[in-house]
Every structure is written in C-alpha cells, then in structure tokens.
Write a structure and sequence with these properties.
The structure holds 2 protein chains of 2 kinds. Chain A has helices at 2-10, 12-41, 53-72, 84-91, 95-128, 138-162, 165-175, 181-188, 196-201, 216-240. By secondary structure, chain A is mainly alpha-helical. Chain A has one domain. Chain A is globular, with a radius of gyration of 19 Å. Chain B has one domain. In chain B, 78% of the residues lie in helices and 0% in strands. In chain B, helix 5 (84-103) runs antiparallel to helix 9. Classes of the chains: A mainly alpha, B mainly alpha. At the A-B interface, helix 2, helix 3, helix 7 and helix 8 of A face helix 2, helix 3 and helix 7 of B.
Chain lengths: 243, 195
Amino acid sequence: MRAELRKLFGLPTAWVGLVLGLIAAPALVFVNAPGVRRAIESGEIADLGYENLGIGLLGALILGVVTVSSEYTSTGDDSPGAHQMTATLLAMPRRTRLLVAKGMALALVVAVQGALTASAAVLLTEVVLPEYAPPFAPDRIAAAALYWTLLALLAYAVTLIFRNGVITLTVFIVNSTVVSVSYLLTKLTPWAAYLPDIVGAHMFLRGDATGVRIAPLTAGLVMTAWVAALLAVAGYLFHRRPA
Amino acid sequence: MTAVHAELRKLITLPSLRWTAALTWAATLVLALAVRRVAPQEDPIRAALRWTQAGFLVFGVLAATQEYEPGGQIRATLLAVPRRWTLAAAKAVALIVVALALAAPAGSPYLVGVALVGAALGSLLRSSVAGVALGLAIYLVASPAMRARLPGSGPWLPDAGLAAEVWPPGATLTAAAWPLAATLVAAVVLRRRNA
C-alpha cells in the first residue's frame, strides 16, 4: 500500500492529473461566473459551484488511468518486453492483494483531491457570487468527493481490463464533455439515467438536467455497484492473465 | 515518393490504426442513429461527429507514436530516411491521404485537420496517452469552454470547422491554420531533437 502510494506520487503524469483536477474546477468558477449570473437572472436555477466539478474529474480520470498504464509501459527502448508490472508482481505475488492496495492508494489520493477541490469550488462560488451561492453543505461535498473516487476507480478498472490507457481516456473524456453521450442516451431510454457517470452525479447535483430524479443514496449505491462489478471483472482478468 | 509509400503502408497495416478507424465509424453510426431519433432536425452524421472526431484525433496520435513504441522503430525509420524534413513531409502526406479516405463518408475535410493535429501532438509528446489526453482536452473541453465564455472567439478555435456548414473564408483559414501550425512545429522539433 505504501509502495503503491509512493509510485503514484513519483509519476510525473500523476502530478499533472492532480494539479489539473485541483485547479480546473475552481478556475471554472471564475470563468463561468458571468454566464451563470445571466442564467440565474433569466430564471434557471443551477447547482452553483457543483456543476463546475465535472471538468476537474479529468484529473481524477488521469490518475485512475496512470496507476495501471504506468505498470505496463516498457521500461526502456532496448527492452521492449520489460514492464514494471513484472517487478511489482515479484515483490507482491498475491494479485488480489496487489489490486486492492493499488485501488486503495488511488482512492485515498482522489478522495482527498476531490474533497479539497469541491470545497474550494463551493467556497469560491460564495466569494464570486455571494447572493446566489448555496449554503456550504459538508454532505454534498462528501458526495462529490465520493463521485470522484468512484469514477477514478472506474477508470482504473477499465484500464486494467483493456490494459490500454488510450481507450479509457477516449471513452471517458468524450463522455465527460459539455454534452455527454450518456446524456444523449437518456433521451432515448430512461434506463440510461442509470449509467455510472450520470447516476453518480445525482449524489451531489440537485437539478434534474436529465429529467429523471434519483435519490442521492440510490444514486450512490447504483454507482458503487457499477464500480464493484467492473472491478470484479478486472480483478478476475488480472488474476487469470499472464502479466 | 518511396518514403510516402512506406509511410502509407505503415498506416494501412497497423492493427491499432485499423481498430481505431473501425471503432470510430461504428461509434459514429450508432450515435447518428441515436441523434436521428432524439433530434431529427439535425444532420445526424455531423452531430455524431461532435463526439467521434475524437477517433480521428486518436488515429493521428497513434500514427505518430507508433514510431516511439518499445523497440524504437523511429531509429530504423531514420536510418532508412535520414533527411528529417523529407520524413516529416512524407508522414504528413501519408496521413492526409489515409485521413481523407476515412473522412470521405462524412464529407468533412475538417477531420483531416484533426488527425494532423493529433499526429503533431503525438510526435511532440512521444506518448500516446499524453497525446490523446492533451488533444481531447483541447478539442472537447477547452474549445467548448472558450466558446461558452467568449462567443466571439468561436470562429478562431481549433474545432471551428466542425460546426461550419458553409465555409466562409475566415473559417477555412482557421481550420487550415491550426493543423498547419501544429504540423510545422512538430516537423521543426523532429528536425532538432534527438530521436
């Protein structure tokens, strides 16, 4: 576990993810402030401060991806077959324990990052738009941090399954853009509201952009179920496949 | 000409590129079907490409980073084609040809530009994950955010060509300028840097 934490903090890419995640959302509060003000004055009620968190998620995603993909990139040009994973497995032959340790290290880092970012974004909203900001609610911050953690774990599981960071990044970034694919799917069938990224957002967003409202607790449980299922698949494959 | 031919064969025969192309078009078709049911007034392919242009970006990145994968194919390539300007030009021409063929069903030369920017990012960063992350962040996160913040910047952003139905001269210029600038920078860096 400590080894995994040190690895994570030793990766330059991980720092990119951390900084990006920490800075992007609060920065967006400033960038979006005029637009949001206009939106409120025209009568639309937004989940102030919380909506901007979507962009910072990219940082969490990158962290989830690099925890795995760093183990599979080759160590040098002249030894194409050598992965860090082989060394890791020599040091820690029990694969399930290794996966748990990696997942815990990732979850810890992202949870702290998510909590910090969410608090910063909400507090900044109070500074920038004092008249409209929602009251500081620790439970919603916690839910947002949980959402980040679960999404990072989701990226971790998907990367483990495909062993390829490019696929995970593409799918998740494309899906977390301004108009997400999952959102398009909710227009086709209401069941799509239970896709992991949409259902998870219900944990801390109160506005109903999709037209379907899900209680925060249900949302959290559904998303946890998704993550658990994918992690189980990833764990099974990781256990079975040659490293 | 031989160099272009060699680069073309690389692009056509690499499995990862084939997969990217196939998945891109499969995703585009599925999304286009979805868009047609949700918003019949929009051009379904064009609307779906808002997301699946990511596939062209990934294609460009992978086309460039395959040289830097374990094994260091770039050294063999440079032994065969030591003139780096020639190599950069051959790579660009080969990618344009392949991307044109891929983008033909959509009828949008803008997508060729996306692939070129991807290739430039890939050869600058020499890592597929970093290239994909940066490229997608530019096209799918930063550009829409900029447009929402400063609507006036719309025609100057790298993804301006996607929305343009009829191309005014300004939009054509922007759409050509981004890939051109990116490719030039990548070529200069390829010329100056150690392989």
